Amino acid sequence: MNKHLWKPAVGLIMGGGLLLVVAAACTSAKPTPTPAPVAAAHEKLEAKTAKPKRLEAVIEIDMREFSFDNPQGAKNPTFRLPAGKTVGIHVHNEGAVTHELALGRKRDTSTGEYAELLTEMVSMDLFSYYGKEKAEVEGASFGELEVGPGIRDFWLRFTVPDNLKGEWEIGCLIKETDGKDHYAEGMHAKLIFE
Ligand SMILES: [Cu+2]
Questions:
Q1: N or C, which end of the chain has less CB nearby within 10 Å?
Q2: Domain residues of the chain, as ranges?
Q3: Are 57 and 88 in contact (CB under 8 A)?
Q4: Which pTM does this prediction carry?
Q5: Distance, CA 5 to ligand 1 centroid (Å)?
Q6: Distance from Cα 187 to the centre of ligand 1, integer Å
Q7: What 8-state DSSP symbol labels residue 175?
Q8: pLDDT, tens digit, for every residue of 113-127?
Q9: Which fold has domain 3-27+36-193?
Q10: Can you tell me the distance from the alpha carbon of 33 to that of 87, in angstroms, rounded to the nearest whole number?
């Protein structure tokens, strides 16, 4: 059986805001005499061990086709986080395709876009862990996060001020070329800052 090597890639595209694209491909490679580090990296990735510092509250979100689930497996539950505290969203793409995490409100049903994006209104720190490797971006402002299949350890860290308290939505706005519309398939959940 072939060993698998992780080849993560993080790309930053400057535009009106900052778009962060994360993709990983699991490619096959010939067995090597010393495969242990690769196996160890896989175990660490699966174990979801690393964690950003200073977090006062965390929600865990599993992306699947086509919902945002909590660790108990509930589909599109209402997620809750406190305003005024340093909070984390830990994102795991457990699905087979790329999904998007957009944090917005006031969605325009004709365009499918959010009129307000929390990720443009509040600066966020982004962390991604690949075994022993860590990618970190501080103070990012961006439209949405694209999370490739196999990315199971992606973090957002931020603080929502009191004036942005209330109901927001986590949505996947991906429309695939074959016409599959993830949002329409049900990939959205409430996120309340209280
Ligand atoms: Cu999706």
A1: N
A2: 3-27+36-193
A3: yes
A4: 0.76
A5: 25
A6: 6
A7: B
A8: 999 999 999 999 999
A9: Immunoglobulin-like (2.60.40)
A10: 43
CA-wise closest residue to 158 among 105, 120, 122, 116: 122
- Joined tokens for residue 56: 């006062």
* CA–CA dist 58, 50 (Å, integer): 13
The alpha carbon of 183 and the centre of ligand 1 are apart by a number of angstroms equal to 7
Check if the beta carbon of residue 81 is closer than 8 Å to that of residue 87.
yes
How far is ligand 1, taken at its centre, from the CA of residue 186, in Å? 9
CA distance 135 to 67: 26
Assign 63 to helix, strand or coil.
Answer: strand
Question: pLDDT of 22-71, one tens digit each?
Answer: 444 444 444 545 544 444 444 444 444 578 889 999 999 999 999 999 99
Q: Ligand 1 centre and the CA of 49: distance in Å? A: 25
Tokens of 26: 């699991």
Q: Residue 120 gets which letter from DSSP?
A: H
Q: Please name the residue that has the structure tokens 């979801």.
A: 48
From the CB of residue 122, how many other CB atoms can be counted at a distance below 10 Å?
16
Strand runs labelled E in 57-132? 57-64, 67-69, 79-81, 87-93, 99-107, 114-117, 124-130
